[in-house]
Amino acid sequence: MSIQEICRVVRNEQLGDGLYRLVLDAPQIAAAAQCGQFVHIACGEGNLLRRPISICLAENGALHIVFQVKGSGTEWLAARKEGDALDVLGPLGHGFDVAALGAKPVFLGGGIGVPPMLQTVKCAKAAGAAPRAILGFRNQGAVILEDEFRAVCETFVTTDDGSYARHGFVTDVLKELLADATGVAACGPKPMLKAIAALAKDAGLPCQVSMEERMGCGIGACLVCACALKAENGETRYGHVCKDGPVFNAEEVEW
Ligand SMILES: Cc1cc2nc3c(=O)[nH]c(=O)nc-3n(C[C@H](O)[C@H](O)[C@H](O)COP(=O)(O)OP(=O)(O)OC[C@H]3O[C@@H](n4cnc5c(N)ncnc54)[C@H](O)[C@@H]3O)c2cc1C
Ligand code: FES
Q1: CA 72 – ligand 1 centroid, Å
Q2: Model confidence over 76-134: pLDDT tens digits?
Q3: How far apart are CA 28 and CA 62, in angstroms?
Q4: Ligand 1, CB within 6 Å, residue ranges
Q5: Within the chain, how many helices (H) and strands (E) appear?
Q6: Residue 17 pLDDT more than 80?
Q7: CATH value of 98-210 in 1.10.3720.10, 3.40.50.1010, 3.40.470.10, 3.40.50.80
């Protein structure tokens, strides 16, 4: 069930160039949130539609969201100050099923797809698994949340240009970890998810991916967020990323 909550900004912290973390006092949404879900945030009078942002952490009544400034909505969010009120709808969507990923899951995040994997790694650990994380970024300036991941699990970092940590893609590291893994889950750009899904399939491992589509209502009523899925008879069917997703079994997705 989704909740509409007026949340106070506890902290707005700049993490990097155009990258922000907002910590919100959101006791009701935080208590109901599951890893991989998102919230839909009203971004001021000039922006008619709410903006979908993943839940990075939900603990002790606080909701952490991490976002990149892209346009007017995220610019408005970036300008929020301590004590400001935000109209937040959530938790929304269908998150990660960490129990289905076994005792040694590998979690991958790419760029602004990294934040939701933090709560997911914590969920897996709390459920008794031994998670590992692989985080990929464009370059050193885009690296976020590394320390928080390292505090929870073994963490590997890659950069596309080699300006920090290992030079290469998250899939280069995944290939080395697959032999000892029981499942894979990921959030990030679609080409990255597609490559991860193919590797997991070849290794015979369950794989869950968090998909991103433009959104209108965020609750399954407008069809803006349709994404192509495989039907059981082999034909294409359409699902709602906001309601059926954002997390899907990779084998369901029509890549
Ligand atoms: C399930 C989900 C989770 C997301 N989680 C995060 C996150 O944790 N951090 C983060 O930085 N970004 C996240 N995004 C992307 C984020 O929603 C967009 O960057 C944001 O809506 C852009 O709004 P804007 O007004 O700044 O940009 P504009 O481009 O001006 O937006 C115009 C319209 O397009 C929509 N839109 C634009 N880009 C996207 C997009 N990529 N996905 C969905 N709608 C879009 C906006 O909601 C708005 O209605 C997520 C998207 C989805 C679907
Ligand atoms: S955003 Fe309206 S149906 Fe998904």
Answers
A1: 10
A2: 999 999 999 999 999 999 999 999 999 999 999 999 999 999 999 999 999 999 999 99
A3: 9
A4: 38, 49, 51-54, 66-68, 70-74, 112, 115, 212-215, 246
A5: 6, 16
A6: yes
A7: 3.40.50.80
Q: pLDDT tens-digit profile of 3-16?
A: 999 999 999 999 99
3-92: in CATH 3.30.310.50 = no
| Residue nearest atom 38 of ligand 1, based on CA coordinates | 214
Q: Which atom in ligand 2 lies closest to the alpha carbon of residue 217?
A: 2
Which atom of ligand 2 is the closest one to the Cα of 240? Answer: 4
The pLDDT of residue 23: 98
Task: Identify the residue whose C-alpha is closest to ligand 1 atom 30.
Answer: 71
Q: Is 70 exposed, middle or buried (0-12, 13-18, 19+ CB in 10 A)?
A: exposed
pLDDT at residue 192 in the model: 98
Ligand nearest to the CA of 93: 1
Question: 192, 136 in Cβ contact below 8 A?
Answer: yes
Task: Write the CB contacts of 53 (distance below 8 Å, at least 6 apart in sequence).
Answer: 38, 39, 41, 65, 67, 77
According to CATH, the topology of domain 211-255 is Dihydroorotate dehydrogenase B (pyrk subunit); domain 3 (2.10.240)
